[in-house]
Amino acid sequence: MDAAQQEATARARELQRNWYGEPLGALFRKLIDDLGLNQARLAGVLGLSAPMLSQLMSGQRAKIGNPAVVQRVQLLQDLAGQVADGSVSAAEATERMDEIKKSQGGSVLSNTTTTTSSSGAPTVKRVVREIQSLLRSVAAAGDIIDAADTLAPSHPELAEFLRVYGAGRTSDAVAHYQSHQS
Prior knowledge:
Layout (H helix, E strand, L loop, with lengths): L2 H18 L3 H12 L3 H8 L3 H9 L8 H18 L5 H13 L21 H15 L2 H11 L4 H12 L2 H10 L3
Helix pairs in contact: 2-4, 3-4, 5-6, 7-9, 7-10, 8-9
C-alpha cells in the first residue's frame, strides 16, 4: 500500500469513528467474536456482499450507504450485549440474527406494521429501540456519557435520559420509559 492509500484508509477509519463510534473493522470484529460468526455470515445478516464488508472493515470504503444496514448493525450490537450479559442464549441469538437479517430497517419515523403491536400502537420496546438507535446514530456511547456528565449538575433529568437511552441496556430504557408514562 502506498502513502496515498494509507492516508485514504486512515481518513476513512477516522470518518467511521465519527459516524459509528469506532472504525468498522473493530466494530465488525467484535460482532464476529461476540456472536460466534464468520465474515460471510455477518455479511449475510447485515445484507452486505462479502467484498463490501471487507472493504468497510479494511477502510477502503468509509460509509455504509444503506440505512437498513446501519440499523441491522445497531440491532446486532444490542444482541451482542445481551449475549454477553447472559440475557440471551446462543440459540436465541441465532434466531434473532435470522429476524435481524429479514428486517427492512428504514427511517426512525417509519410506521409500518412491523413497528406496531396488534392494536396498531407502537410497542414500548420498539419506541425505546428507535430512540436508542437515533441517539447512537448521532454519537458514540462514550460521547453521550461525556455529554450527560456535563449536563448532570444543571439538568440531571436530561443527563439520566442520555445515559439510559444513549449508553444503557434496552431493558433499562424500557423501565425508564414506562416510569415516565403517567
